[in-house]
Every structure is written in C-alpha cells, then in structure tokens.
Amino acid sequence: MSATASRPARPETAGPGRFARPLLGAFLVAAAVDLTGLLAGLDTVHLVAKPLLMPLLAAYAAVRGGPRLLIAALLFGWGGDVFLLADNDLAFLLGMGSFAVGHVCYLTLFGRGRAGMARTRASLAAGIVYAVVLAVFLVLIWSDLPAELRVPVAGYSLLLTAMAWRAGVLGRYAAAGGALFLLSDALIATGIAEWPRLPAPDFWVMLTYIAAQLLLALGVLRAGRAGRS
C-alpha cells in the first residue's frame, strides 16, 4: 500500500465535509452580491441575496461538524434577516426577537467552554468595558428612540452585549465576531433614533453583520476542532 493510500482522508474532503468549501464559497458570493446591491441601490438584489446568507453559512457549519447550537443561532439569525426586510415596527420586533433567541443559543454555547485564569481575568476586564459602553450608549440614545421601542431595544442590547463579551472565551475570531455584531446593531439603533449616519448606511450594517456571523461561526468551529485534537 502506498503512503498516499494509507493516509486517512481529511474531514473536509471526506463524506459531507467535501461540500464545505463550495458552501463557504457560495456564502461569500452571496455576501458580495448583497453588498454590491446595497452600494448600487438595487433593492431587488438585496431582497434576493440577504435571505441566502445564513442558510448557506449554517449549511457550511453543519458539514464541518459544527454544534447544533451554532446552527440554531445562525438559523435564528436568518429569521431575523427575513423579518427585517419588511419596514414596519412589528417586523422589527419579530426580527429582534429572532436574533435574541440566536444570542441565547450563542450564550449557551459559549458557557460550555472552559477558560484558564488568565483568560478569565481578561474576560472580566472586557466585560467591564462592554458594560460601560452599553450604559453610555443607552443613555445617549434613549430619548431619541420611539417610546414603544425603548424597553425592547434596551433588553435586546443587554443580551447582545452579554453575547459579545462571552464570545471571547472561544478566542480571537469569536471575540471579533461578537464585537462586530454589537457594532452592526448599534448602527441600526442609530438609524432608528435618526442620528447622523454614514453614507450607504445599510451597506455598513450588512458588512459588519456578515463579518460578525462568519467570525463567530469560524471561532466556534476552530474551538471545536481544537477540543477534538
């Protein structure tokens, strides 16, 4: 038997894992199409491309052997994406609720990780920073939010901030993903409050959101692979 024949197949190239690269490629293409459509002001492109993003990323995570909680978090993110395509308060609340369930999935997943003392100290320091940022942001934006959205936005922001903080237990990828998720939703909140916004605001919201979900997924998958090793 040759050396090549005796070498075990890599998980990514055997069984369902062989679909991992095509699925990741399809996700990146859909992301590029969506972002290009937003920059070009093509609403139809955004309506078609956005709902494809999270199912493709969830499928990629599934064939890579990702945990069910990760896949659930991504699919609840898809639910939020679909609801937010409608421009009304009810759809906004339903979308926020779907994202909130996704954050609970992430928090449960992050709670299963074990960290050393050094990481615990760093995590506590990051938690203090996140808490201060959240408090300052809510104080500044509170009076500019519609009255009926203040409590839901505050509750959701607390949950999202907790998720962003706890993401750090799985390493730099997940930590960056959590921070970008927080930034993306902060950009949405400033739009609701009618604060001054960057040019092409929807582009920046989606860019940070897409990067956040991808980095969170990669962080979870890397941590799982390291644990198995």
Which keywords apply here?
9 helices, 229 residues, mainly alpha
How many E-type strands?
Answer: 0
Computed structural class: mainly alpha
* Large-scale geometry: globular
What is the distance, rounded to the nearest whole angstrom, between the alpha carbons of the first and last residues? 27 Å
Strand residue content:
under 5%
State Rg.
19 Å
| Main beta-sheet annotation | none
Mean pLDDT: 89
**Helix-strand sequence:** HHHHHHHHH
Q: Which ranges are low-confidence, i.e. pLDDT below 50, for 5 or more consecutive residues?
A: 1-6
- Percentage of residues assigned to helices: over 70%
Q: How many DSSP H or I helices?
A: 9
Gist?
The protein has 229 residues and is mainly α. The protein contains nine helices and no strands. It has helices at residues 3-6, 20-40, 43-63, 68-83, 89-111, 117-141, 147-166, 172-192, 201-228.
Written overview of the protein:
By secondary structure, the protein is mainly α. α3 runs parallel beside α9 and α5 packs parallel to α7. The radius of gyration is 19 Å and the shape is globular. The chain starts with a helix and ends with a helix.
Give me the secondary-structure topology.
Layout: H1 3-6, H2 20-40, H3 43-63, H4 68-83, H5 89-111, H6 117-141, H7 147-166, H8 172-192, H9 201-228
Helix pairs in contact: 2-3, 2-9, 3-4, 3-9, 4-5, 5-7, 6-7, 7-8, 8-9
